[in-house]
Amino acid sequence: MLVVLAALFAVSVVVPFLHSRIGRKTFFVLAAVLGAGFIWVLSYVPAVLNSSQAAAPGQPNAPPEEVFEWIPQLGAELAFRMDALSLALSLLITGVGALVMLYCARYFGHKDRNVGPFAAELFAFAAAMLGLVLSDDLVMLFIFWELTTILSFLLIGYSAHRIFARRSAIQALIVTTFGGLAMLVGLLWMGELAGSYRLSEILDAAPELMSIHPTAVDIAVLLILVGALSKSALVPFHFWLPAAMAAPTPVSAYLHAAAMVKAGVYLVARFAPGYWETTYWLPIVLGFGLLTMLVGAYRALRQTDIKLVLAYGTVSQLGFLIMVNGLGTQDAALAGLAMLLAHGLFKASLFMVVGIIDHESGTRDLRVLSGLVRHQKPLFWVALISTASMAGLPPLFGFVAKEVVLESFYAYAEVTGAEGSVLGWTVLVGVVLASALTVAYSARFLWGAFATKTYEGQRLADTTFHGRVSATFLAAPAVLALLTVVLALYPAGLQALIEPFAGRFEPAEPGTDSTYLALWHGLTPVLGLSVLTWLLGLGTFLLRVRVSAVQARVPALVDSERGYRNTVRFVDWFAVWLTARTQRGSLGYYLFIILAVATVVPLSVVLFTEHTVPESVIAYEQPLQVVLGAVVIAGGLGAIWAPKRFMAVLMVSLCGWGIAGLFALQGSPDLALTLLLVESIILVVFVLALRTLPAGIWTQNPAKFKFGRALLGVAFGVVAMIAVAISMDSRTADPVSVEYPWMSYDVGHGANIVNVTLVDIRVWDTFGEITVLAAAATGVASLIFVKRRDVQRRELHEVPTGSVGRIMPDSALTSRQVREIQVARSFATVAREAWLVAGRTLAPEHRSIIFEVVTRLMFHAIILLSVYLLLAGHNSPGGGFAGGLLAGLALVLRYLAGGRYELEAAVRFSAGALMGWGLAVACFTGVLPLFAGGQAFQSFIVDLDLPVLGEHHLVSSVLFDVGVYLVVIGLILDILRSLGSEIDVRSEEENRRRSISASRTQGHDVHSQTTLGVAR
Amino acid sequence: MTINLTLLIVMGVMLAVGIYLLLERSLTRVLLGIILISNGVNLLLLQTAGRAGLAPLVTDGAEPEEYFDPLPQALLLTAIVIAFALVSFVLALIYRSWVLARQDEVTDDEEDRRVAAKPDYDPEEDAEVETETSEFIEDEQMTLKEGGEDRGDESR
């Protein structure tokens, strides 16, 4: 079975290519394939008939099955099982499918290019539908179920240029997917309750499950029924099916009459043997089924489009099918399956007839169609047979099936009536009434499509066909009509086929014989009911003018479609309304809301829970703490006040330095050291990045809501203080870090607990962090350089002396500025040659000899110190971060003193390479112990006994610190090159352009200015 | 645990001032707000380490409880360096915003405004459509008709 399904799907994939070669002849191929599928299904008949339908999988007498392992963790398997129910539906799917394909070969034109994909979708649908009825696994069942939904969506939307088709497709998709999701929950629940996703096992376990988890099973079955109801277009989901008539007629004939809408009926029939006794089953199945049957038939009488007459008729019949298949008696099961097949035969045939009429005459309006009965005899005969079968007239299969259906309802009514319930009789009356309406709309259909009509005394012009209806075109509906006759005359074969399925149910009244399919059961009350339906129906049809007058006066009380449209509109409107309210486009507004929530929620938690005032409170550890705290607070307030950009930055730096002091006082030299270095670098970076921005911080849009912001800030600060105080007060457990000292000394081989924590105990954390650093550095570089970060700078010797940082040619300066520059330059001249490698490249007014000298003196010492911090950090304050930051600071010095060429001279590597190597080293440290059989990042000691330097213990985690060191240097280098060097270049270029335009207006010759031109 | 009022108050002030600045329009001040908030959070972490103690360098004879709790310190060290990277990134953003738009402030998102101003009427879903009585109406007519509808919708 798996092979056949896979083959069918494979065929559907190649269909578009086939279509581009041989055009609409493709459909003959597809019909042949499905015909072969029909024969393949038939080959299962003996095996199915000889097996016991209720046998659990794996038993020797079980129906043919195939199981492949798929997702054992979830209990999902590729399980297929061919029992009598599956067999009957498979025959319907492949048989009608083959005929529909044959029909398509004449329905579509030669030229239409969309037909290739259409054919593929239609064929894939046949495969999915076959998979659906063969699946014995709930997950597979659901997947095929949704596949048919999606393919139905695609097929309805075939005429995608028509708004009506698009809308109908989406409507069908939404409605059936809604039901499908409810069903998914039900199926999964059922699977979990039963402990197995095998459908056959779940059905076997039904009595057990219903006694152990009665409520859960009730609800799960209810959810599954919602899926079935939506798929089979029952009230209140029925409206999607008439709208789906926007699909090409072959699709209507196949999906929306014979196959897909039967999926819901199939599901009901599938679960009925085990679960028809659950609480909600009969009320839903009978209630909604009967309502649908009546509503559908009633509305079919109102339609003027013959395709819609059929569509509402289908809705009505689907309600009928769900009722009878869900009734749960032996007779009803037999009748239900027979009725399902009968409906498939006559309804598909009728849709094809409608398709032919539409195709040949260009209309389906029964107010326009006229006189076809005289001109299109063969078509009329086909339609007559199928319509009569629909109305339940003998000697046709529709009659045979309807007889047993009525019989089973009659028996049900008798049995429940004997128990004193009127339910059965009510249902029977409803069914008879609806059947009478069925007769009426059948007659209306036949009359509407074929009769010669008069309008206000005037005879309508005869409808003419574009051409003769070819035999191939008519073949498919004719074959179906013929089958309707044959099955009525020889029902025994079919009886044998579906009897095993009916055998899974008990008879309505224990001990009675089960019914059988036949044209003549004798003069039974049921025959009387049938005759009654014909008479009532015919009467309704003959009085059609009055009936429609009454119908026109009855207001449509409930219109599900309008309800659906209104729901969709409301969702749209609400989405737009909510967006307009919340999507203000102002970042500050969003932040305000977020922070307000972050203030109010913890505050309400604090207010509505009980707390005691903390007892253990100290004002300060030592007086100096208060002084530093005051400095920090002053810095913070200063940042608010500061009118100039750099003043504000300085104030914030003040905070940082104060906090570094607080760290040191608490007993944390590592933190104090790191924070001091970071604050210094941040200050420099700030100045570098913002130097092109105006000095004043005020913008054109003065800040609004000052008071509100201040209030929120204070509230947040206070709430944070209270929350911290409460949580610290309620802490009772010892910190985990009491174990850290011995761990770091004995296991990590280092005395600096903080450093060992970073490079050993919590090394994964640090590893993640340096990765983030590398990413952030790359982000900075890409924001500034945009294209690539390693710009090729000129070789040092190519850069003319004093060329870097010249802003304007001297001639463009005022005399006062010239004098100032001369003074500045006088400090830049020095007898000795350069202190720094690239110091000479700077414009004289930008040089500071003192700075160059100091840098020259200090650079190597600082680098040495940084290496010391790196290596000694394992046992004393320091480490990779502090070391790297210090080295970075040294580079900052070089850059500030000697300009960008000096920085290039100082570090020849690309920043990316440095960070990459750093990460590689850190990674290497982590991976290395794995080869020695240890864990990732496990520390180990290498003892070295060097001749002169003496005995040394090298701890492997120091190597990790080297990686950190390199990453940090790379980060700072990247920042310097982006926010330093590159911005230098940019602003020099900009100034040059500005001075050129300035000098042009003054009439100077630009090219004579040698100081112009920017060196990369 | 013992609560250190000085640290608690300084933390509160840092957070309050940070949030006040964060809600400004000027990007520079927003950045300063971020720095101050991270300062406040750093102080929060510091307080979770409890009372002041010995620097966490293992020395003979010292009990584990005597050291200043090393775990928050390790967390803080990471936080400080990450904050540095973050500040650099925002600085690059500010520079870029200045170069491209000469703007040093958080501007309103025009796209957001446009979305908010969108009407809830969607012709694809809400227009009244005639029901069709044939699949074989000339396609040209259909496209013409739809084109007309679309224009009508826009003028509405």
UniProtKB/TrEMBL annotation, chain A:
Q: Where is the Na+/H+ antiporter MnhB subunit-related protein domain?
A: 850-973
What is a biological process (GO) this protein takes part in?
A: monoatomic ion transport
On whether Transport is a keyword of this UniProt record, the answer is yes
Q: Which residues form a coiled coil?
A: none
The UniProt record lists the MrpA C-terminal/MbhE domain at: 712-784
Tell me the segments the record calls region Disordered. Answer: 992-1016
Q: How does it sit in the membrane?
A: Multi-pass membrane protein
Name all NADH-Ubiquinone oxidoreductase (complex I) chain 5 N-terminal domain ranges: 73-114
Q: Where is the NADH:quinone oxidoreductase/Mrp antiporter transmembrane domain?
A: 135-415
Q: Where is it localised?
A: Cell membrane; Membrane
Q: Which Pfam families is this protein grouped with?
A: MbhD, MbhE, MnhB, Proton_antipo_M, Proton_antipo_N
| Superkingdom to which the source organism belongs | Bacteria
Residues annotated as transmembrane? 27-45, 84-103, 115-134, 140-160, 172-191, 219-241, 278-301, 308-327, 333-357, 378-402, 422-450, 471-498, 518-543, 587-608, 623-641, 648-665, 671-690, 710-728, 767-786, 849-871, 877-897, 909-932, 952-976
Q: Give the chief site where it resides.
A: membrane
Keywords associated with the record? Antiport, Cell membrane, Ion transport, Membrane, Transmembrane, Transmembrane helix, Transport
Q: Where is the MrpA C-terminal/MbhD domain?
A: 631-694
List the molecular function annotations (GO) for this entry: antiporter activity
Any single GO CC term annotated in Swiss-Prot or TrEMBL for this entry = plasma membrane
Write down what this protein is called.
Answer: Monovalent cation/H+ antiporter subunit A
Q: What is the lineage of its organism?
A: Bacteria, Bacillati, Actinomycetota, Actinomycetes, Micrococcales
TrEMBL record, chain B:
Please note every region of biased composition (Acidic residues): 122-141
Q: Name one GO cellular component term.
A: plasma membrane
Coarsely, its chief localization is membrane
Q: Tell me how this protein sits in the membrane.
A: Multi-pass membrane protein
Q: Which Gene3D superfamilies match?
A: 1.10.287.3510
Its annotated compartments are: Cell membrane
Keyword flag Coiled coil: no
Keyword annotations for this protein, in alphabetical order, are: Cell membrane, Membrane, Transmembrane, Transmembrane helix
Q: Where is this region: Disordered?
A: 106-156
Its domain of life? Bacteria
- Fetch the Pfam families from UniProt: Oxidored_q2
Give me the stretches of Basic and acidic residues compositional bias: 112-121, 142-156
Q: Name the residues that span the membrane.
A: 6-23, 30-54, 74-95
Q: Which family does it belong to?
A: Belongs to the CPA3 antiporters (TC 2.A.63) subunit C family.
Protein name, UniProt field: Na(+)/H(+) antiporter subunit C
Species source reads Nesterenkonia cremea
Q: What is the lineage of its organism?
A: Bacteria, Bacillati, Actinomycetota, Actinomycetes, Micrococcales
